[in-house]
Design a protein that fits this description.
By secondary structure, this protein is mainly alpha-helical. Helices cover 78% and strands 5% of the residues.
Length: 83
């Protein structure tokens, strides 16, 4: 294996690690939002707020998979955005 191929493999692995770290940050950010919003409401509404935040996370994940991932890592369209 030559040096260029090795660098390409390592580059892909580093990208994957940073992507997973970013996903973990987003997950914990959603949990933080849930706790902040729950703290601003009455105790009787805490379950509703937590469910709203859970659904926000679930729907956001599905929308990202359907639309955002292709924009993020898709084939270039005029060198600006993925398609």
């Amino acid at each position: 294996m030559d040096l260029t191929a090795l660098i390409s493999v390592v580059d892909k692995e580093i990208f994957s690690v940073w992507l997973l770290i970013g996903v973990a940050f987003i997950f914990w950010m959603q949990a933080g939002f849930a706790m902040v919003e729950t703290g601003f409401t009455r105790a009787k509404n805490a379950g509703n707020i937590l469910m709203k935040n859970l659904m926000d996370f679930c729907i956001g994940t599905v929308v990202f998979i359907i639309i955002g991932f292709s924009l993020f890592l898709g084939e270039d369209l005029v060198g600006f955005i993925g398609k």
